[in-house]
Amino acid sequence: MASQSSQELTGAGAPAVESRFFTPPAEFEGCFTTFYRMTLILPGDTVVSDYMQPEWASLRFFSGALPTAKIGDDVLSESRYAATGPSSNPAHFTIGSTRMWGIGVLPLGWARLFDADASELANRMVDGTHHPAFSRFKPLADILCDDTISDEKHFFAIVEAMRQNMRPHRDEDRILRVHRALLDETIRTVADLAERTGINPRSQERLCCRYFGFTPKILLRRQRFVRSLSTFMLDSGGKWTGAMDAHYHDQAQFSREFSNFMGMKPSEYAAMDHPVMNSFVAARARMLGSPAQALDAPGG
Predict the structure, then answer these.
(1) Is 155 part of a structural domain of the chain?
(2) What is the pLDDT of residues 205-235, one digit of tens each?
(3) What is the tens place of the pLDDT at every residue in 141-182?
(4) Domain boundary among 109, 137, 165
(5) For labeling, which of 43, 58, 209, 278 is most exposed (least CB within 10 Å)?
(6) Does residue 220 contact residue 190 with C-beta atoms inside 8 Å?
């Protein structure tokens, strides 16, 4: 078991964010981003709000304060097990001091673990305890939400739960081909993607909706956007011009795309405090070499 930890202390009266990242076993290669434990410590009974950027599917288990979160039309509160499908919209959340375990599920992991079409759960946030697509992992909540159990035992519980639910899938090779191609910054169009993967456009669209949650066109746009937003969060000197992906024609196009994905203007986002995500993204980039789920390679 390999793990890396990072602690971000953001000043007196500000949140302390401590993250620990665990590498999934080799048998799960290509299925998960990481298994991670994040601890958020706030003074007294204060709460913070922030926005999660678009990402792959996630399972999150909370002990301590429970979040109130919203993505699209879904609002979830008082749930210790929150599950989200792949997203192209932000998830806004408000939370107090807590400890959370997160499991990021890549498209190959979705194919091996879930029977539902990812497109049916795209931009959805549900109580995993009761939702039929996610309830098989309900027993994990009793373990991961127990602070008396060590991180190491939590990790092994996650591994065992995933091992019991994994099954091979006939589309694995095609899923990995598409996923790797999405990460290639030289690919600009759906036609480029089809040529690189050797999958005809109609079949590729069905495959992407089934396991990735969105059409190839939206996935390529999301990749450009997440690359830009992550660069801004990490090192842009506070200027969008230094963060914009090279595939954007101009700042006006980027601003339109930002509004489409985040529901606000770039200037509005930049003017906000991001007490949780800035710390977490920086720690993720430092520990894993990738600042965001959507930028993680599937391996293999």
Answers:
(1) yes
(2) 999 999 999 999 999 999 999 999 999 998 7
(3) 999 999 999 999 999 999 999 999 999 999 999 999 999 999
(4) 165
(5) 43
(6) yes
